[in-house]
Specification:
The protein is built from five helices and 18 strands. By secondary structure, it is mainly beta. The longest helix has 10 residues. It starts with a strand and ends with a strand.
């Protein structure tokens, strides 16, 4: 099932998509209310053509910072180290975790705010993200699937100069307008686990990233199990699993984003988000 948050006739709804139509869930005002529900049993209102609605981020205002993985694809690790060894070259016996502040997620067709007054090295990162389905504590890898509500696409927009100048990644990844999410949440039962999905990005029509989520260094069962040892992952937590090679800083010379550029992030079965830099 594909779950959407959308605007229609000036009101915001949450619904499920079927055959180019969206069916609004009755009495549901935000995506968090669906977590833990038997979705097939929820009543729905009258179908609305997908073409008539404005898609919003499925989770507009996350209750917690998004948890992110850094350098979670081997080839991306290589290109990052070429760009800045001090910031990115490291041994990886353990996963690299960091958080990203998202006050308001950018919609699937919304604008990325460039913040060119404080950065001139704006970059994109197409990532598979998953949403925790119930509070997770001390989860075993073999039980991890039971804690996945579904999957979505995140563009982990990054100001590389801020990221490297401050010797940590939080500020350079958390500026307003730096997190497009969408276009939907694909429920966990719609794909194999762990997912093996093609993941791609394009800038102004040029294919930049082209990989598959099976090439993660640390997969979703590892992530859930490790993070839940001693730390409770609350239901609704968004975890972005890292990006494959092909980001702007990986080219020689780098291909950073400019105002007017269009960035497409696409993941098999989920769809695509298309965002313009302003």
């Amino acid at each position: 099932m594909k779950l959407y948050t959308y605007s229609y006739n000036g009101c915001t709804y949450v619904g499920k998509g079927e055959n180019k139509y969206i069916f609004p869930f009755t009495g549901i005002s935000e995506m968090y209310e669906l977590i833990g529900q038997e979705l097939d049993k929820l009543p729905c209102g009258e179908a609305v053509p997908m073409s008539d609605v404005e898609l919003l981020s499925p989770i507009i205002s996350p209750k917690n910072d998004v948890i992110c993985l850094g350098i979670n694809y081997v080839e991306h690790g290589k290109e990052a180290a070429r760009y800045n060894k001090e910031a990115f070259l490291r041994e990886r016996p353990h996963a690299i975790y960091f958080s990203k502040r998202v006050n308001c997620a950018v919609s699937p067709n919304g604008n990325i705010e460039g913040h060119f007054d404080i950065t001139n090295k704006l970059d994109y990162e197409c990532e598979l993200a998953f949403i925790i389905s119930k509070d997770a504590k001390n989860v075993k890898k073999e039980d991890a699937y039971d804690y996945v509500f579904g999957y979505t696409i995140v563009n982990d927009v990054s100001a590389r100069d801020l990221q490297t100048n401050h010797k940590q990644w939080y500020f350079g990844k958390s500026l307003d307008g730096f997190t497009p999410i969408g276009p939907c949440i694909l429920t966990a039962d719609e794909t194999e686990f762990p997912p093996k999905l093609d993941i791609k990005s394009y800038v102004n029509g040029e294919l930049r990233q082209n990989s598959n989520t099976e090439y993660m260094v640390f997969d979703i069962p590892h992530i859930i199990s490790e993070l839940s040892q001693g730390m409770t992952l609350k239901a609704g937590t968004i975890i972005a699993t890292g990006t494959p090679s092909g980001v702007g800083m990986g080219f020689d010379p780098p291909k950073f984003l400019n105002a007017g550029d269009e960035v497409i992030c696409e993941i098999e079965k989920i769809g695509r988000i298309v965002n313009k830099v302003i």
